[in-house]
Amino acid sequence: MSVKGLILIIDDEADLREMLQFKFEAEGYKVDVARDGLEGLEKLKTMTPDLIILDMNMPKMGGLEFYNRICENNVKPRYPVLVLTARANLEHLFKEFAIDGFMTKPFDIDLLVKDVEAIILKRHRTGNVARPGIRAGVSRHVLIAEDDQAVLNRLAISFLNAGYKVNSAATGTDAIERISSDVPDFALIKLGLRDIAGDVVIARLRHMVKTADVGFLLYTSNKESHARSVMERMAEKSHIFVEYNEPEELQAAIDNAMKQKFRGV
After folding, report:
1. From CA 215, how far away is CA 253, in angstroms rounded?
2. pLDDT score recorded for residue 133
3. How many CA atoms lie within 13 A of 163 on its CB side?
4. Dist. CA 178–CA 196, nearest whole Å
């Protein structure tokens, strides 16, 4: 079996390190491990990993300090990084990082393997920066408004792995403020946000000059129950309305919308 890539796992939980090492080696990866950031820096003196799986909370040197130490000019890390954390409320911090993915503990190990494979494959593609139908160099920036942290993690990882810049908002109010201050190409807005319904968020942004040209996708999970008349009304509006089972379905909808938006650019 050919080696798929070299992974460095940095985590102070011995059981988790061993489990991840066993799993990824079984999947065809070469794996090295470190117990904390200091040991991770030592490992990097003799190896160039295709991906670092980095825990945040560790003794001696935690994930944040390690991340800062491997950044060039305090901007971008020298290696792809996927962050692991037990603190879901750190997501707003993660979005400021130049990371390739993040996952909240406890996690589905098969989902982690899938994300790692996507990150490494994307990094190994030469010259394939743009998605099919979108010219290289064209901005691909999305904001996701989602109040369920676990769902947001899955959606953000899917878009990050596809090469999008991703920002997020946990409420409709937050989405309006963030989209107004950092205008994305597309905004994915959950219909059932707790404070303001997603369609109302979109309507408000559509009436603002600065955000009038943003593409909007209003979405809901197939698991959520909504009256058919409500869904038909949403579909009649000018923004995209999608019911989905998997994050890839939303990503495909945005990919297609991007092709239409930037056709001929």
Report:
1. 11
2. 39
3. 20
4. 15
CA 58 remoteness from chain centre:
23
Instruction: Answer whether 0.70 is exceeded by the pTM.
Output: no
pLDDT band at 263; cut points 50, 70, 90? low
Edge-to-edge strands of the sheet including 165-169? 165-169, 141-145, 186-190, 215-221, 240-244
Position of tokens 């056709």? 263
- The SS3 of residue 2 is coil
The CA distances from residue 26 to 20, 122, 156, 157, 264, in Å, are 10, 21, 27, 23, 45
Per-residue pLDDT of 171-207, as tens digits, reads 999 899 888 888 888 899 998 898 988 888 988 888 8
Give counts: helices (H), strands (E), the chain.
10, 12
Residue 138: partners with Cβ closer than 8 Å, 6 or more residues away: 130, 262, 265
Contacts with 240 (C-beta within 8 Å, 6 or more apart), sequence order:
215, 216, 217, 218, 253, 257
The alpha-carbon radius of gyration of the chain (Å, integer) is 20
- 38 neighbors 52 (Cβ within 8 angstroms): no
Q: Which two tokens stand for residue 49?
A: 């990993």
